[in-house]
Amino acid sequence: MREIHSFHGLGQVQAMIDPFFGDPFGIDGIALSPPPGDRIRKLKFKHAEAEDCKQPYLLGLETGSTTGAILHDLQSLSISEATHIPKEGEVWSQSRSVAGFLVCKERHADLNSLVLLLERMGSLKDSDGRKRLFRFWDPRVLQHVDAASHTMAAWRGLFSTPMGRRVGAVDWHFFDAAAIPCILHIEPLDAEDESWSPLLTDPWRKELELWSCINKMSLQLLIVGETEQATPALAMRLQQISSRNLAPFLGLDRFDPDSKVELALLRLFERKPIEEDAALMNTLAEKSEAGFSIFPRLDDVTKVDIERALIEFRDR
Predict the structure, then answer these.
(1) How far is 177 from 230, CA to CA, in rounded Å?
(2) Averaged pLDDT of the chain
(3) What is the Cα–Cα distance from 21 to 60, expressed in whole angstroms?
């Protein structure tokens, strides 16, 4: 039996639902009646390439009422989604429709302001001023956020604005990539902050790119390794292997994030530091810029290759 979050005595919990791949209360979701509409607060990202029905929303649930059963079932579904490894023929992505559970520490927190804060957290601008959707609520993003990250610094600044102080501190409960229950604490700064900006600065951009690449590469290794379930120990090792092999390529502007994952896979399975071969790297950059795959033989990688990589990582 896997451990779940205990919300006893915490009052109302806001479940963060992401219906992009499917709503848990839809036809193929959990066998529960849809909650009353007045418990739902929708988030809207106008620049996101998704219909309104695919936009995330908050679902308010009381821990000690009849909705407590829904809260329990949503946790079970979140665990199931975290441990599911896509098989051949499925989309190479995991649905995390039950993204997490928010608890406001302030008893009278303004939930309408909370929705506006979350919308701002998901709407960033790049260096060219274009709006970008940041799916920050995905547990595979949240699991990387810590007190020293640029992401947390930005969030604390946002929660220190006048709007943020109407919400106060928030505890974000979620299940990470190995279905381990985690809690992320978002605390406002001591002083009020009027200068929060949605501009995706370079250190912050690189941080998010690293997390995205690690998650994508780890999932691909789980899939080609024919893994039945992402145990905590295995998930951690694959993330460390991914991080180590991605590190040499993160500062290379000629490659997009997907190409950097391919470079890291090539480095891992060729078992050599390809970044030290300038001629090879130039050739790979030209292939990438022309739209060709850098690592076309992923389908040829076997479970044995993954096991060998895990053994070599353990022996280092």
Answers:
(1) 8
(2) 84
(3) 21
List Cβ neighbours of 106 (8 Å cut-off, separation of 6 or more).
Answer: 167, 168, 169
Average pLDDT over residues 41-60: 83
The structure tokens listed for 291 are: 């739209």
Tens digit of each residue's pLDDT (9 = 90 or more) over 7-16: 887 878 999 9
Interatomic CA distance for residues 156 and 164, integer angstroms: 9
- Beta strands 123-125 and 98-104 are unpaired
**Type of residue at 94:** Q
**What CA–CA distance (Å, rounded) separates 87 from 96?**
16
| Residue labelled with tokens 């979620």 | 174
Work out the pLDDT band at 41, boundaries 50, 70, 90.
very high
Given a cut of 90, whether residue 174 has pLDDT beyond it is yes
CA 203 to chain centre: 18
Element (H, E) at 30: none
- pLDDT-based confidence at 264, cuts 50/70/90? very high
Q: Round to whole Å and give the CA distance between 149 and 60.
A: 29
- Give the DSSP H or E segment for 173: strand 170-175
Q: Are 302 and 224 in contact (CB under 8 A)?
A: yes
Give the C-alpha separation, 138 to 277, whole Å. 36
Domain boundaries, the chain: 12-186, 202-315
What integer pLDDT is reported at residue 8 of this predicted model? 82
How large is the angle between the packed helices 202-224 and 232-246, nearest 10 degrees? 130
> Is there a contact between 153 and 79 (Cβ–Cβ < 8 Å)?
no
Phi, psi at residue 63, to the nearest 5°? Answer: -70, -30
Q: pLDDT tens digit string along 68-78?
A: 788 888 999 99
